[in-house]
Design brief:
161 residues, 6 strands, Glutaredoxin, 19% strand, 3 helices
Amino acid sequence: MLAAGLLAGCSTGDDAVAQGGTFEFVAPGGKTDIFYDPPASRGRPGSVSGPDLMDPSKTLSLNDFAGKVVVINVWGQWCGPCRAEITQLEKVYDATRNLPVAFLGIDVRDNDIDAPRDFVADRKVSYPSIYDPAMRTMIAFGGKYPTTVIPSTVVLDREHR
């Protein structure tokens, strides 16, 4: 009983995500590592496809964006940093809409499809996302994509490398 009281005392019920706010994490040392693989050392992912978050009767695929640079963002509505960055991603998507650039989100670890749908609608995100609660699409990257780091973004060139 005392333990339950102590645990309850640690929670206010007013966390940022529950209240619609945002919070940010800072990488160790205050920096994020960004790296660029030269074309000769890049590989191509396997088949990246899955149900469209907003219309699961449709299938989205990396192949839908042939000849385009593709920005893939792995996210979840439960993820604080995802909530913080989604508005900026939408701004970049909007600014590059008329260029040969496509954005593809992959929503992961959201078992109730209504939560990410509401999140996308509320934030007015207009680029498509694959609904993938079990993270099965990540298999296509052959272990070369950081599946434990959410959010995570990768940019594929026009040949999808």
